Amino acid sequence: MTTVSVDSLRHAVRSLSRRPTFSLLCLVLLTLAAASVTAIFAIVNATLLRPLPFRDPERLTAVLTTEPAKGDSVQEIVAGPTLLARWRDQTRAFAQIEGSAPVTLSLSGDGEPEALRGATISAGLLEMLGTPPAVGRSFRREEETPSSAVVIISRPVAERRFGSSAAAIGKLMTLDAVPRTVVGVMPAQFSLLYQGGDVWVPLDLTAEQRAKTRLRTVAAYGRLRPGITLDQAHADLTSVQRQIRDEAPEAFAFTKIRIKPLREALFGQQRASMYVLLGALALVLLIAGANVGNLGVADVIGRRNATMTRLAMGASRQSIVWLRMTETFVLVLLSVVLGLLLAYAALSLFIAIDPTPFLALGTHWMDLRVLLVTLFAIVVVGFGATFPVAIAEARVDIGAIAGAATKSAGGRSDRRLRHTLATIQVAVTVVLLSGAALLGRNFVRLMSTRPGFQSGGVAVVQLNISARDHATAESRAQYVDQLVQSVRRVPGVDAASTIQTRFVLNETMSTAVEIDGRPPTPGGVDQFAQIRHVMPDVFRVLQIRVVQGRGIDSTDRADGRPVAVVSSAFARAYWPGENAIGKRLRRNSKTAPWLEVVGVVDDIMDAGVGVPIGPTMYVPYLQQNTPTARVTIIARTKGDPAALGRPIRRAIWAVSSVQAIDDVSALSTLMSRSAAQPRFQMLVVGTFGTSALLLVLAGIYALTLFGVLGRMRELGVRAALGATPSQIVGLAMRGSMVPVVTGAALGVLLAVPITKLMQRVVATRLELGDTVLLAGVVVLLILSSSIAALIPARRAGRVSPSVALK
Fold it and tell me: What are residue 545's phi and psi, to 5 degrees?
């Protein structure tokens, strides 16, 4: 049996090699289908199907709060030490409620300082998730204080610093100038709630932190008790929240509870996208199957002489079916292998562009379920499309094979179905290519948007200032001033300053503000504005235009009058039609000083390309700052900022040899990274559009070839009656170009409303250029389809009338 199978495979391979066009087209179609199934189902599997890598994940929840926003809307906000501690102590519905907050710590000691990312976590979080340390132990409740000086580290850090996980236990690591004892090492590939990380330290839940009622920086997670529903848990925490509100109405008057299953909290926003991807996948499989079937029918007609010869020499009809099925098996096997490789390459590219949608994939996204689904889908598509063709090929009458093959597989209803499928394919392709073209146009326009500052020639240095070493505002101001002065002396640096932003997409800092002489908002809801603690010369380094007054300068220190600079949007929002200079504002706290506005500057987009941040206030870092005010050094350089990375690092370490540096990047690079999402959208839609175009071209080729072979007798008669080769070619192409033109028109009708919807999503309006793009897509599709139809149609123009009439 094995010998027979091997012989059958060899025969099938030889047979396919003699028809390279048919074989290659089928392989391309099935490979595209396999790659689509693998890539899409891997994402769907990770986000919707695969069990979360936690203990009893169905009982895990995220516990959020909501606060009133603009209009009737509400905004979700994480909890804080006050809420987490009270919920944890008083809940009856939850077995545990734990929390975490992201943090970056500076590792100093041997070698250069290193910035390690991680989180502060409550003592029971790892056990609640069912992910305890692989070596050592977790934190204890009594260690939820800064004085505990313990740390849990990742396995890569343990092996890099100490040689192995076991050797790391009990060792000291100096983090943010605090010697901490390693008490645990996490397993390899561990990622806390898909957030990654290098180190984890205890969350500060001391009485001092619990008293900070307005602090909302801790994400809370809970494990429901057996038999407790989400509604019961919500009622339980709402009761606790009422008590908290009565005790601190100024902070929690409008705070409400929202509880979500953990999977929904992690991936809920992606669910709609997953369903859209599944729908697109089903369409791709349908189109691929239809085109493989069309190619098969055309191949049956093209091989009629070989089939007739085999049957006449005694071959059984079963062997005809068996050969066709064996050929399909070879194509399916090759397409699955190539599809897996193509899917891996596509996912790697997409993850490199924007890893956010793929966090759930982890490092082992290819599992048995994905492999089996891919194999099953391609087997169904390949054999489902080929088996009817094989049956039709085997049933032909030897005496009338030329007509029978066509008739058995090419009746009027079948032809109408093929034309309908081709029309749908073209329409879908027009929509996808239009979307890709519009997203591409939007991306180019986005990258050319002026963000309010000049990003070229600016180096960005991301730091984490130790609150322990610099506990007071005066100490922090003096230290940051020394860092800036040292960087300013680096050869090739023209000017240096700091700003409170990392130029990361949608990452920004806001504060509640109070305007002098302006009544409180209705309902007591706070007014919010963006805040940036900055050093002098910040507007010079970034070349932000000062519209009115002056910027922040070296005289704005703690012993001077408190001042602020506001953006144009701030001035328009709070003093419309008035002169903002001399007005007063302050952070919404009775102890905060009033700040006099001394300048107005242009609006900027420091939270990503094309992301307006709204009203913004700039506060002198030398005058007042907080431990949470991030410090990012910016330096305008004479040449390439990337070339000054090492000298800038040395300048910082000359001030403090233990200062860790997160990253040194060119500002232009960071702004480009912030556009990863629109770039990702463009590539995904473009990939689908290109795949659909290839499917359409293969389908048009097959449709034209089938029409030529099926009408060979008619075309021969026309040639005998005097029709020229060009007329024959035009006649052969006409049948396949009708669904192309019809589908293009239908696609335009569909693309217009979808384009308008896209304009709303990407925040641009429909313009004349969009019509030109749409027309260009249609012209491209029709031209490429004409070429795909011309290749087999020329075959009809070269056929001799005497041969065609036989």
Answer: -75, 130
